[in-house]
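User: Is it possible to get a 3D structure for a protein together with its bound compound? The compound here is magnesium ion. I've pasted both below.
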Amino acid sequence: MTDKLVILPGDGIGPEIVAEAAKVVGWLKDNADFDIEIEHDLIGGQAYDEYGEPLADSTLEKCRSAKAILMGSVGGPKWDGVEYNKRPEAGLLRIRKELNLFANLRPALVFDALVDASSLKPEIVKGLDILIVRELTGGVYFGEPRGIEDLGNGERRGYNTQVYTTSEIKRIGAVAFDLARKRSNKVTSCEKCNVMESGMLWREDITALHASAYDDVSLEHMLADNCAMQLLRNPSQFDVIVTDNLFGDILSDEAAMLTGSLGMLPSASLSEPGQPGLYEPVHGSAPDIAGQNKANPLATILSLSMALRYSFERGDLADMVEAAVKDVLDSGKRTGDIMSEGCTEVSCSEMGEAVCSALESVQAEKAA
Ligand code: IPM
Ligand code: MG
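Assistant: Yes, that's possible. Here is the predicted structure of the complex:
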C-alpha cells in the first residue's frame, strides 16, 4: 500500500505556504523516487465554516490512516466570536490529543545567510542549533478542572489546571535524551519547581529517568524563566531543551526569533513509533498578510523535510530539501520577513519555485 500524506492547509497564510510545500512534494514524486498518495482536507476556521467543527471526525479518520499530516496554520479574526471549543485552535488541540502527538520537536537553527536577520548580535547566534522538545498533549492546555465560573457577586473566576504524571514526564524525557544522543548529547530540562508541585515532580522524574537509562547524556535543570533569559544571553549553551506544554509554547517562539524570523521554523509532532506524525510551521496564520503571496513558505517546506525524515524514513530526501533551502538563502532570495540589504525580495510562490529549482542542482551535484 502506498504511504499517504494528508495536507491540511488551514487558515490565513496556511493555503499559500502549504501550496509551496506541495510543489516540493510534487518535485520529489517526479524526480526522486518518492511514491506517495496525497489527500487534502480542512482544519481550523475553514473546517468550522464547512463542517461546523474545527476538526471533523471524517478528517481525523483520514489522518489516522496517513503516515504524515502536513498542516499550514489555524486561526484568524474571522472566528473571534465563535464559541470557545469550536475555535480554529480547538481543532489543532484536538488533532494533537486524538493522535497522541505528545512529542513536539521544534528545532531553532540559524542559517549562515540569515545571521544578520536575527535581532541578536551575529556572534551570539552564528551556528546556532537548538532543539526544543515540548510536551504537547498534557499540562495546563488539557488539565481539568478548567473553566470560567460566575461567583454571583459581579466577580467571575477563570481557572486551569497544570497537571503531569510520571509516565507523561518520562515519556517526553526519553524522547529528549534519545535525540540528544544523536546531537551534542546535552539536555536542559525546564520547569518552575520553585513554585509548582508539577514542576517539582517533573524535575524528580527527569532526574530518575536520567540515572536509570541515560547517564551518558549530560543533564542540566533550569527554571523556565531563567531559560527564557539564557536563550537571549547565550543561546549556544543549549543543545536539547525539554519542557512542558506551556513553557514549550513560549520558549519555542523565543528560540524561533533568535533565528531571525518565525517564518523559518518547522516542527514535528510525534506519537509512538509507527503512528502518524503531524508537521507544521511554528508560526501562526498571519491574517494581516494572508492572500497577498508574501508569506515565507520555508518553515512549511522545512516541516515537510522533517516529515520525510521522521515519518517517511527518507533522510536522504530531507537532506536534499534542507540543502536546497540553504542554497536558495545563500543565493540572496528572501521573502519580506527575512529581507535584508543587498538581497532580492521574492514572493511566497517564487520562494517555493526557487526551492524546487535548487533541488535540481542539489540532485545533479549528488549524482556527479
Ligand atoms: C503553537 C501555537 C498553538 C499552541 C495555538 C495556535 C493553539 O501557538 O503551536 O505554538 O499554543 O500550542
Ligand atoms: Mg505557540
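The chain has two domains: 1-102+272-368, 129-257. The first strand starts at residue 3 and ends at 10.
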